[in-house]
Write a structure and sequence with these properties.
The chain is α+β, with helices and mostly antiparallel strands. It has one domain. The chain is built from four helices and four strands, in the order βαααβββα. The protein has helices at residues 6-15, 20-32, 38-44, 86-89; strands at residues 2-4, 55-60, 65-72, 77-85. The protein has a four-stranded mixed sheet.
């Protein structure tokens, strides 16, 4: 998969150092993946949520942070839509961000 944009993740882990290793691992796994459906992602990340509209929500660093992505399965593109604390996540609509 092509992940856009790593810089968003990097900017986040520079301010939340405890998330760095897990975000780097997630990024590397996503880059190597060839996901064709949400079910394939759920096999690898059982705690991930599927809100709708080709989005997935991942728990990062023991659910301390949330990562929202949008995926175009046909073209193999993943867009980082949001990364934030759990309280910041509670203020956004995962289906619209």
């Amino acid at each position: 998969m092509r992940v856009i944009a790593k810089r968003t993740l990097r900017d986040f882990w520079e301010n939340h150092a405890d998330s760095e290793q897990q975000l780097k691992a997630w990024y590397n796994e996503a880059e190597q993946a060839n996901w064709k459906s949400p079910n394939e992602i759920k096999k690898e990340y059982p705690s991930a949520s599927i809100p709708e509209d080709s989005r997935m929500v991942f728990n990062i660093t023991g659910n301390r942070y949330r990562l929202i992505i949008r995926i175009n399965y046909k073209y193999g593109i993943v867009w980082i839509r949001f990364i934030g604390t759990h309280s910041e996540y509670d203020k956004v609509d995962a289906t619209k961000i």
